[in-house]
Structures are given as structure tokens and as C-alpha cells.
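One thing: could you explain this record?
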Amino acid sequence: MTDMSDLFDAARRAAECSYSPYSHFRVGAALLCKDGTVFTGTNVENRSYGLTNCAERSAIFTAISAGKKEFQAIAIFTPDSEQAVAPCGACRQVLSEFAREDFPVVFAGKKEKVETTLGELYPFDSLQNLKEGT
């Protein structure tokens, strides 16, 4: 099993592959599956910003494409920011499709690191009620 420091290192390496010629804001994500497999993703920009894909969703979509649907944790690294940058709303929504509220989320910039859960990032997710059977 991969520990969180290994997962964070994978996110750091993924950020190096970012395609961000417009924002110059690199992001890498590493998603740990329940079976120990790690999928990485990076942000891929487009001159039409609406077509840009975040690192977190890139990792999740790659895992889903490989047949994985049970996830254990995600780590996100933004090397071009001093502060930790949390996943955007779209990424939180996609994460909530596949993870419970106690799912660990770690994100960091160059000087700040935050360790939290999906439930703390996305406290009023309506899907959680469906997952819990209420």
C-alpha cells in the first residue's frame, strides 16, 4: 500500500507534465485506488478555458478508464503557488461521485500543506445522503 508521502511525491512528479501555457499554473494529482494502484493526472489547458481539464479529474477519469472505481485518497500539488490550493468545485463534485465523506484529500503549494477530507471540503453534498441510504 502506498503511504500519503509516496502519493504526494507522485502528485509532485505529475505536476511536471502539466500543459499550462496560458496560466503557467501547474497542478499534479495522484489518486490511490483501494487495490493500491496509483493513477496520476495533470492539468491540461486549452486556449478556450472551458475546455481545460484539472489534474484531479484527469487522474479520476484515467482510473475509471482502467476499470477502477474504488478510491482511497488523493494528493494534489501546485508548485507555482506558495499556498495550498484546494480542488475546484467541479473536481469536488466528481470526487463525491466516487468517494465517501471521510475520503482523505491532501493538497499543497510550495510552503503550505493541508490534510482534510472530502466531507470537510464539500460538506453539503446531496449524493452523500444517497450513499448512506437516508
